[in-house]
Amino acid sequence: MDSFTLNLAVIEMSLSKGQYETIDDYISTFSPNVRNILEEIRRAIRDAAPTAEEAISYGMPTFKLHGNLVHFAAYKNHIGFYPSGPSAIEAFKDQLSEYDQSKGTIRFPLDQPIPLELVKQIVRFRVKQNESKKLKKGKT
After folding, report:
1. H-helix or E-strand containing 32?
2. Which of the following CATH numbers is that of domain 3-139: 1.10.3430.10, 3.90.1150.200, 2.140.10.10, 3.40.190.10?
3. pLDDT tens for each residue of 32-78
4. What are the respective helix, strand and coil percentages of the chain, to the nearest 5?
5. Ranges of each domain in the chain
6. Which of 11, 14, 44, 70 would give a disulfide with 119, using CB separation of 3.0 to 4.6 Å?
7. Using CA atoms, how far apart are residues 129 and 87, in angstroms rounded to an integer?
8. What is the pTM of this model?
9. CA-only gyration radius of the chain, Å
10. How confident is the model over 67-96, as pLDDT tens digits?
11. Phi/psi of residue 78, each to 5°?
């Protein structure tokens, strides 16, 4: 198990609000302010990847397109944004420099505006990655 998958498994085990069937179910459990932020992120992802499917994976909102595209989740002081591995974080490291991050996680503080255009750019990057992987799999 790679470290990204392990981190997501730990997050899944630590979620205390329960299991959700839809992103709407997940979002509905938060305060109005956090719900608005989560919906803005959801719209940004949908704008950047209109054909991606919504799901709950690892206990959090997920968009899938030829595999996991991105995950996001709300916490006490931040929104966790998980672009399914470290490559997107590395590709956008300059734009992400003001945010706390780790190998597979970006933390957007709740007391600052969420960089929705940057979220869209990261999602588009992930779409290209997943589409490329799908094409490579189709050639083998």
Report:
1. helix 32-48
2. 3.90.1150.200
3. 999 999 999 999 999 999 999 999 998 999 999 999 999 999 999 99
4. 45, 20, 35
5. 3-139
6. 44
7. 9
8. 0.84
9. 14
10. 999 999 999 999 999 998 889 999 999 999
11. -155, 170
